[in-house]
Amino acid sequence: MNSSSRTSLILLDLPNEILLIIIKQLSMVDVLYSLVDVTERLNQLVLNPNYIRILDMTCLNMQLHFYRFYLTDDYVCERICQNVLSRIKYQVNELIIEQPSIERVIHTTDYPQLHSLSLVHLDKKLFFDFLKGDEIFRNLLKKQITTLTMNYESIDEAAIEYDSMIFDLILNLCERLIKFHFCPYNYRFGIWSVEFSSMNCKSEILSELNISVDSFNDCLYLFDGHFPSLSILSIHVELIRYTSLMKRDKEPILKLKQFSLSSNLRIYSCDEMIIPLLQRMINLEALTLFLSIIRFHSNYIDGIQLHDDILSYMSRLNKFTFYIETAIRRYQSDLVLSSNEDIQRSFIGRGFGPIVSHLDIFPKPNEIRTFEKVLCVMMTDILPFEHEFYQIISQSFPVLRKLVIFNNVPQKVNQQPRTLITFPKLLYLDVENCHIDYVEQFLVDHHCHLPCLSTLKVSFFSLWSVTNYFTNDSTRLTCSKVKRLLVKEQFMCTEHLHEYFPSL
To answer: Which residue did the predictor score with more confidence, 127 or 67?
Structure first.
């Protein structure tokens, strides 16, 4: 008996419950390609309606993973289309598919029970042309789809003009669309950003929307009668600033039950813009806010203001999730700022559960404060962190053990000569969610000295680029000390990588 037959027998000796657990851990593309028609028993498990009702036709390509491309092999896709799809078409309720496979999968057969569609790895221009010209796909969207999710995996500034046109075309085409997740905000790859001012789109039945928009005017457009059934809205607004539309929009927003608002840019008009809008949402049951606010002549936002100005208007609210950063600039000399304990008590006094708050008053320019007991620092900003700033950080936190950085903005002076920075106690460095400049900042040994570094969390693409395919001598010393390499992407463990990280 050969080894492959022996392995097959051992696998099939397992009970169905265990086999199902194994199957669910595998890519559905691999399962449909490899296990269908092997045995009748495997067919019963793989083609079971409970398993196949969510048909996921995406496959993560190992060689391209650090580019974040989802590409199913053409031969594999063709075989599944020919041998499987017509047999399961009545069981498929939800389809997840990448753009290169859309036409082939949709044209192979009809799917009478399909109502939910997720499209990934979309090229804006190609998809727009396909959406306009493919009648089978258009008919599916028009007659069947009630839930639609769209995502893309790369930034294409030249194609940004297609965002609004695609959104408008889909809303006008989909007669039954109830839930629409239109390329939600992605901190690494940016957003598809819709400008409602450039079109006149509306829907009488859309009840759930996840979207990113350019301005607060576009946000207000959604509450101006164009979407009367909207009850769940998650929106990322690129720029929130004062607009004259606030003066005319004062009617209560009665239908909305769940609302999530986020913005990465600093907001200078929260009291004039955001608070009046929230006060109109009198039937809200769940609220999420992720905001960074600038104030000039008033105190920090605390539990008292949140309750009195927002939550007291929402008698049905039962869930409030928030991250609110308040920065006070040029405050009056006689203005007494709240302490961290004051902020904590303000929430307790208004019936909130435990919350996490942090308060710090930055020193004057050229004045360095030392925090002898701080072991962990997390940093984020919409402005770049330059080399000199890390010099201050290293001096201010002499016993720092863990450093986490979120910043996608490139450094402006990364080509100039730099003084060597030392973090003598740093054990854990997380530069996964930041621009490649910061990965280079810390890994190049004549920029930064990390004598105790043992854990590195980083994007594989950034690591691969900065180390020049694991051959760059200027980053070899730092990498050689790393004992734990945390990379969420899958990648091929090459000989060069093992030589570059001998302590793993």
So the answer is: 127
